[in-house]
Amino acid sequence: MKTYADTKKTTSITVRTLALVYGTVSYLIFLVAALYAIGFVGNLIGPKTIDAGSAASFTHALIVDALLLALFAIQHSVMARPAFKRWWTTIISRSIERSTYVLFASVLLLLLYWQWLPIPGVIWDVEHTTGGALLQGLYFVGWLIVFLSTFLINHFDLFGLRQVYANWRAGEYTLPSFKTPSLYKLVRHPLMLGFLIAFWATPHMTVGHLIFSLATTGYILAGVHLEERDLLAVYGEVYRHYQQRVSMLLPLPKKQAIPPDTATRRL
Q1: What pTM does this model have?
Q2: What is the pLDDT of residues 174-202, one digit of tens each?
Q3: Cα–Cα dist 70/53, whole Å
């Protein structure tokens, strides 16, 4: 006959297993959204890309696209803020907070791909030229930087898997140690630099693609400043020294040295 303690233990294991499944499914949805982004922005897979899809008037397309971008930006920014996390984790388990953030962002990205309306009109077109080939190559370099940057820190922590796995093992979750490997010695936000390269490096720039690139660039610059503020609040002088030594987005030389890695960092 099962005791109350046995029942409680079984329930706990079930809840942790469900959290692990939830986190894994959220990660897989993210993978689909992330990989589709490469084809969407680069016009590599049809029938729905940034320049392919249902036609609409300029005003209608601009309003719809702006709303889609705003939805993603608001969710991505608000749910990343520490104050929101403190409130949010009074409702959901801390172990699935990151997975939920990733899931919401991924679903909104998929919505953007689905409902995005192309806006024709050519800004530049250097396809079938050497310059076009170079821009196409730079496009893939940008995405390579994006994915490499996530693995240089802790890919599975960044997208919530490490948290749900630690919870499933009934272990204590700890933040990854503060480190500045490889690209992080050149710029503080190589992930965002990769996005900027990918969004702008195109041999065929349309009005719709330009609007997308301008909007996402503005969001990235604003988001990076908010993240810097959060990192300073958590890590204080350790991160301030890092700021003094390494540029934010462009690999420009700086003078002051960073002290040894003595803290943890959440990116």
Answers
A1: 0.88
A2: 877 778 889 999 999 999 999 999 999 99
A3: 20
